[in-house]
Structure formats: structure tokens, C-alpha cells
Amino acid sequence: MEWLILIGRIFWTMVFFGAGMGHLTQTDAMMDYAASKKVPFAKLTVQVTGVVLVLSSLMVVLGVLADLGFLIQAVWVLVVAFWMHGFWRIDDPQARMMEMTQFNKNISLAGSGFALFVFFALGGGEAFSLTITDSLFNLSL
User: Fold this and answer.
1) What is the pLDDT of residues 106-137, one digit of tens each?
2) Residue 42: pLDDT above 80?
3) 100: exposed, middle or buried (Cβ count in 10 Å: 0-12, 13-18, 19+)
4) For the segment 84-95, what is each residue's pLDDT rounded down to a tens digit?
């Protein structure tokens, strides 16, 4: 069973690692998009979030404080959902639909990320047989 959890962690991080690498390798394009959404210090923000996404992905995949990695990613997609994909601010129906899709995807990822954070912070049972460290947080129900 622990192998399925590891595979799940790998699949989970693919989107975050890919986004982080995109932030770091396509900074100018990402910066222009971020600036269009009124993100302060767009270039620096893109670079910092790229590093955060790559590092949190490595935390999750390697199992180094994986609970913290999941929490970072969940908070990030929640912030991005509201800041970058505010479909309610868009008049064009086609653009509004695209942003609504992205918003809903991010909300779903945030919910899953928070659930995974709790799973790992509770101890996760077999989840820790293929990790380098235990969780940072020690939650109990």
C-alpha cells in the first residue's frame, strides 16, 4: 500500500513541479501575465513562487516534511484561484468560462492538498514507510 501512496505523491507533484519550473524557465512570459493580473513585483513574485513550488514538490516526493509541502501547495493554489482566476471580474463569456475552469481546478486542488496535509500531519500510518522524515505538524483527532 505504501507504494500507492508514493505513486500518488509523485503524480500530485507533477503539476506543481511543472508550474514551478515554468516560473523559473519562462519568467518573462509568466511575469507579463502576473503583471496583467496586478501582482505586485511581478518578476520577483514569479521567481519566488517558482522556487517555492519546486522545493515544496521535492518535499512531497522525497517525504521531507511532506505535510508542510502539501500545506504550502494547498495555500498557493487557493491564493492563485482568487487572485489570478477571478472569473467574476471578467465580462467576455469565453474568457470568463476559461477562468472559471481554472478557478474550480485550483479550488479542488486546494481541498485535496489540505486533506493530504491533514493525512500526513496525523501520522499517515504506512505513508511514512517511504519518506525521509516524519511530519512537521503533529495533529490528532
Assistant:
1) 999 999 999 999 999 988 666 677 899 888 99
2) yes
3) middle
4) 999 999 999 999
**Please, which residues have CB within 8 angstroms of residue 139's CB and are 6 or more apart in sequence?**
118, 121, 122
Distance of CA 113 to the CA centre of its chain: 8
DSSP states of 72-140 as a string? HHHHHHHHHHHHH--GGG--SHHHHHHHHHHHHHHHHHHHHHHHHHHHHHTT-GGGGGG-SS--SS---
What is the residue extent of each domain of the chain?
Answer: 2-130
- Residue 139 or 46, more confident: 46
**Distances 139 to 46, 47, 90, 107 between C-alpha atoms, Å:** 32, 32, 40, 23
- Tell me if 80 sits within 8 A of 110, measured CB to CB: no
